[in-house]
Design goal:
single chain, mainly beta, globular, disordered C terminus
Length: 164
């Protein structure tokens, strides 16, 4: 039995994570500072400045399959899941974009996100936003912004029926 003065973590508690192979539980060791895997265009078109953007796909969650009445698999969302989770970052500048279906949480930085309908959101750490596929937006980044996003994984159409 542990005494109340014992401050050592229980066997199920982890207070630090070592870098190394991902075991499926730890998706990022330091989501605030980890380098991003891929440089991408900051949007559809740069409007002002010279912004850059990067992304790292951290993993996928859930598994979604659509099966017809015969048991044939018609579609599977993602190789291992139904939603992609990643980190995206954009440096200062302004760019337009056409959005994917997405929910994101701002980790750091500041930006104004303006939609074609005129609504403007002021983004900063802790703000959670829902984007809808096809929305046209303008990102005016004041301080490099970094977010964690969740978006549907790419759909792959497959068939499990034997070929005739």
């Amino acid at each position: 039995m542990q005494s109340h003065s014992d401050t050592s973590p229980s066997p199920k508690t982890s207070t630090a994570v070592s870098p190394g192979p991902r075991n499926g539980r730890v998706l990022a060791v330091d989501v605030f500072a980890d380098a991003l895997d891929e440089q991408i265009p900051p949007g559809e078109a740069v409007v002002d400045g010279d912004p850059t953007a990067g992304v790292s796909v951290l993993g996928e969650v859930g598994r979604v399959e659509r099966v017809d009445g015969t048991g044939e698999t018609l579609a599977t969302a993602g190789a291992s899941g139904g939603a992609e989770v990643g980190v995206w970052e954009m440096t200062a500048g302004t760019a337009t974009d056409i959005e994917a279906d997405e929910v994101f949480v701002v980790l750091s930085g500041r930006a104004s996100l303006t939609f074609d309908d005129g609504e403007t959101l002021e983004l900063g750490p802790g703000v959670v936003v829902r984007l809808h596929e096809g929305e046209r937006t303008t990102w005016a980044v004041h301080e490099t912004i970094r977010k964690i996003y969740v978006t549907p994984a790419a759909t792959q159409t497959t068939s499990t029926a034997p070929e005739s």
